[in-house]
Structures are given as structure tokens and as C-alpha cells.
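TL;DR need C-alpha cells for one chain.
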Amino acid sequence: MNINDIMITDLSYCTRNTTLDQVAMQMWERNCGAIPVVDEENKAIGIITDRDIAMSCALNHKAPWELDANTIMGDRTLFTCSANDNIETALDIMQEHKVRRLPVTSGDGFLIGIISIDDIVNCSEESKSAAMPYERAMKTLKAVVVRH
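>> reply
TL;DR here they are.
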């Protein structure tokens, strides 16, 4: 099974200049915990989680409307996958880098979707097939939820 079989394509995104309160409202409206960040060409350049917003506000002693996505971006590496990658590839990336979500990009880096460990676990539990390995998905989930 490939990423394009289960990725979310109807997604919200923001830019470096989007304020954190706007990003948080997108998360609220979309019932999600992460929003990809894109540049002027719609190329994926980052991802912001609800935890990122909370920690950025706390560490900077500022309200979310006083901070923008660029505050969080820094020089963090963005891990992505492509729509044609198989689920195992996504699980490998998530497990190795301890991330729960991967923006899905085209060969040119354009944002075309997103996939989360939740999507993979839910799909693997429903299918219980060799194409969607439930045990492997659970192993990855356990690897990425390591406490600090």
C-alpha cells in the first residue's frame, strides 16, 4: 500500500508570516494537531504542532498573536515522504526521526498532502492485511511517543 492510498489531501497550511493564533485556529477548525508551513511557491518548508505553539508562547513569554510561524521554524529539518512511497517507508522515517506526521510532497517539493501515524494505525487496524502491517505500525507509534 502506498502513501497516496491513505494520505490527507484536503489540508490546511500556513506561511512563515502566519501568526500562531491563526495556526491554532486552523488546527481547531480542522481538528488536527499539525499544520504544514509552505513558502511562496507552495513548497513544504516546515510543520508546526500544537505543542510547538504552546512551548513557543511559554518560552518567549508572549501571546500567540505576537509570534509567527517563523518563530518556531528555526533550522529544524523537515522530514517528508512522497505519494508513491510505500507505508513501510513512511514508518521508517517516522521511527528514525521520532515524528508523528509527514508532509507529502511532489518530486519538486510541493505540498500535496500529509500523513500521520494515526492515519496509518487506523488504516492498519481496519485492514489487518500484509499490505498494512499493524504490528509494525504499533512499533513505530511506540517509538515516536517517547517522553522527554
